[in-house]
Amino acid sequence: MNSKDIQSLVALACGAVLQGAAMALFLFPHNIASGGAAGIAILAELWFDIPHAVTIWGLNLSLLLVSLRWIGYKSSFKTIYTVTITSFTISLIQLFPISFAVPIYLSMVIGAGLFGFGIGVLFRNGASSGGLAIIAHIFYQVQGILPGKSLFVMNMFVFLIVSYFIDWRLFVFAVVTQWVATKVLNQVVIYPLTKNETKDTAVSA
């Protein structure tokens, strides 16, 4: 392992921590889903009292094991590495909860911004946040369905279920969160690359 690999792993860890902190501190307390996997985690906690981090890690591990043929070992390793750190960050924060007197709208914007920045760092280093984007990638490889289309449909379906069982406003919050996070993510990804960086990116939720 050379210095470039070590720098990449450190960057991935930082992005994963930001992603986990965004969810645990600003989004999950208000049941705002940052993506399909996060929405499933919210429902699992609501229905079965399963911690968010356990659902996110278990779901991603299962999907990655099934999708190795299409995703590849390198991207799969990086993704499960980041998902593990993200899940650990969520567990740690929820174990020692920090209370913020932040309105839900402001919490949504801050959480979405941090989430998008964290995923942007992952993208720049060849990983992703995993989630339902893994399924979207398989659909693209097998059926030729564009990832953005299938991912949009799956996320919207999960958002609708979450909002139906908890609060209809959460659908709007989830969509806005996705929009803000995507804008931030794009800015991080297109920020001028140094000569030592490449665009070796994987799919992301």
TrEMBL record:
Subcellular location: Cell membrane
Primary location: membrane
Top-level division of the source organism's lineage: Bacteria
One Pfam entry name: YitT_membrane
Mode of membrane association: Multi-pass membrane protein
Membrane-spanning residues: 53-72, 79-98, 104-123, 130-146, 152-176
Alphabetical UniProt keywords: Cell membrane, Membrane, Transmembrane, Transmembrane helix
Identification of the protein by name: YitT family protein
